[in-house]
Design goal:
Layout: E1 15-19, E2 25-29, H1 34-44, E3 51-54, H2 60-71, E4 75-80, E5 83-87, E6 95-96, H3 108-118, E7 120-124, H4 137-145, E8 149-153, E9 156-160, E10 168-170, H5 176-186, E11 192-196, H6 202-213, E12 217-219, E13 225-229, E14 237-240, H7 245-257, E15 261-265, H8 273-281, E16 285-288, E17 292-296, E18 305-307, H9 319-326, E19 332-336, H10 346-351, E20 356-360, E21 363-367, E22 376-378, H11 382-394, E23 398-402, H12 414-420, E24 424-428, H13 431-441
Parallel strand pairs: 2-15, 3-14, 6-7, 10-11, 18-19, 22-23
Antiparallel strand pairs: 1-23, 1-24, 3-5, 4-5, 7-9, 8-9, 11-13, 12-13, 15-17, 16-17, 19-21, 20-21
Helix pairs in contact: 1-2, 1-3, 1-6, 3-5, 4-5, 5-6, 7-9, 7-11, 9-11
This protein binds uridine-diphosphate-N-acetylglucosamine.
Length: 442
């Protein structure tokens, strides 16, 4: 389905065809952070002035959010592929329930943004990747603390308030979504809000910086206590989204797993520290410069142990990528997933390539194998899908990865960027195209 700005929100039936075996070599340019952009776009509707958002990734989750914004009267003008102008002065409805929005997680940010601005919002319950139970109780706890009534009816979360008043909110679990959502709802509330045990992820900081560029008063983002002094009104601004640390990390592991040499450009190396540390433990060389990291892997990866944690710990969104890489490493590795309770679904897919991984609860015990064999795989979710592509890049012969619609939620031109690094990968949507790809790459 195409919508009027020409960006696509359709779920494709395409798959990746991959012939593995080439080390990836060269440079890759990283786009804007999807998860930061989702929060920033929602925040942009809180002012009636024009905002200009740059470095916006052209990925499906973003396009779905833009479409949902348009459905309530927000004017969205994509002046360039990565730049969007937003004017939310003529919002005509506060109910968001289009079919696509139900598929993404970040729809919940529209709840915080609309509640903050109009004191009322009705948004379809969020979807997103099926990586475990993904509650929203903390979001609701925050809205209620600010004075809203919140109920769930007919698949919609309905939040309503006569007025919002600053409050002291303690988050029982560190939650990126709840931290950002409460920030959104609180910036126009009366008085002071304190969010304790806040998430410290770079995208939380990015949304706070954007809100401050609109005239909000948010302090402490990036620490575990965020203090917000409510302001009466927000104004327009021009803002550029930070680079995507997960896209960057994925390409760093692509270099590692293929024994390649890749310079990942347009990144903030500080945001990648936990990934860099693990790659070094696994025997890679990592060189950092101001806005790039180069990963060189010349020999078989070594085993290590890793536990996912909130930032600055190792990100859960990088867990499948490191696990797939360790599955080819020398020796036994243990990967512990401490954020989500169902994030090892890709292990069964990887087993088709000959991996040796045993999952017990939230732990994967990985016995490294020397090589993967080619196979036909299905992406179970966004990051796991990308990780399976990395696995296929190492396997001699032809592999396929189906359900790339998940990968397209969060990676812009994943196949094209990999091709530029020497990968033999193509998007195909029929057997005929797959055969053509086989003939082409030989
Ligand atoms: C965001 C990211 C996602 C990433 C995750 C953790 C977006 C759109 N998605 O997801 O890519 O994997 O952060 O870095 O930015 N929890 C509750 N109650 C709540 C909210 C969360 O118990 O109300 C729990 C969750 O079940 C989970 C943990 O908190 O166990 C962290 O979740 P959270 O940080 O909220 O993840 P998301 O915002 O959904």
């Amino acid at each position: 389905m195409k919508i009027k700005n020409g960006y696509s929100v359709r779920w494709t039936m395409e798959q990746y065809a991959i012939k593995g075996g080439n080390p990836l070599v060269g440079e890759v340019e990283i786009g804007g952070a999807k998860n930061a952009a989702l929060g920033v776009l929602a925040a942009a509707i809180m002012t009636d002035d024009m905002t200009v958002i740059e470095n916006l990734p052209d990925v499906r989750d973003i396009n779905v959010l833009l479409q949902a914004m348009e459905s309530i009267g927000v004017i969205v003008y994509r002046s360039e592929r990565h730049t969007v102008r937003i004017n939310a002065s003529m919002i005509s409805g506060l109910v968001i329930e289009d079919d696509y929005i139900k598929k993404i997680r970040a729809s919940y940010y529209l709840l915080g943004a609309l509640l903050g601005k109009y004191k009322h919002a009705e948004v379809a319950l969020p979807g997103g990747c099926n990586i475990g139970s993904r509650k929203i109780d903390l979001h609701i706890k925050g809205f209620k603390a600010l004075g809203a009534e919140v109920k769930i009816e007919h698949g919609l979360i309905i939040a309503d308030a006569k007025y919002l008043k600053g409050a002291h909110i303690y988050l029982d679990t560190v939650s990126v979504g709840a931290t950002i959502n409460i920030m959104l709802a609180a910036v126009l509330a009366d008085g002071k809000t304190v969010i304790e045990n806040a998430a410290k992820e770079p995208h939380v900081v990015d949304v706070a910086n954007f809100l401050n560029s609109l005239g909000a008063n948010v302090k402490g983002a990036g620490t575990d206590v965020i203090r917000i002094s409510g302001v009466k009104k927000l104004h327009g601004s021009e803002y550029s989204i930070i680079p995507d640390q997960i896209e960057a990390g994925t390409f760093m592991f692509a270099a590692a797993i293929t024994k390649g040499d890749v310079t990942v450009k347009n990144v903030i190396p500080k945001h990648l520290e936990s990934t860099t540390a693990k790659l070094i433990e696994m025997g890679c060389q990592v060189e950092e410069s101001d806005d790039a990291v180069r990963v060189v892997a010349s020999k078989r990866l070594m085993s290590t142990h890793v536990k996912t944690l909130p930032y600055p710990g190792f990100p859960t969104d990088m867990q499948p990528q490191i696990a797939v890489s360790l599955a080819l490493g020398k020796g036994t590795s243990i990967v512990t997933e401490s954020i989500f309770d169902n994030r090892f679904k890709y292990v069964d897919e990887l087993a088709k390539m000959g991996s040796n991984i045993k999952v017990e609860g939230n732990t994967a015990i990985i016995e490294g194998v020397e090589r993967f064999t080619s196979a036909n795989l299905t992406a179970p979710d966004l990051r796991a899908g990308a990780a399976l592509v990395l696995a296929c890049l190492t396997a001699e012969g032809f592999s396929t990865v189906e359900d790339i619609k998940y990968i397209e939620r969060g990676y812009e031109d994943f196949d094209v960027k990999l091709q530029k690094l020497g990968a033999q990968i193509a998007k195909v949507d029929s057997d005929k195209e797959f055969q053509k790809f086989k003939l082409k790459v030989g």
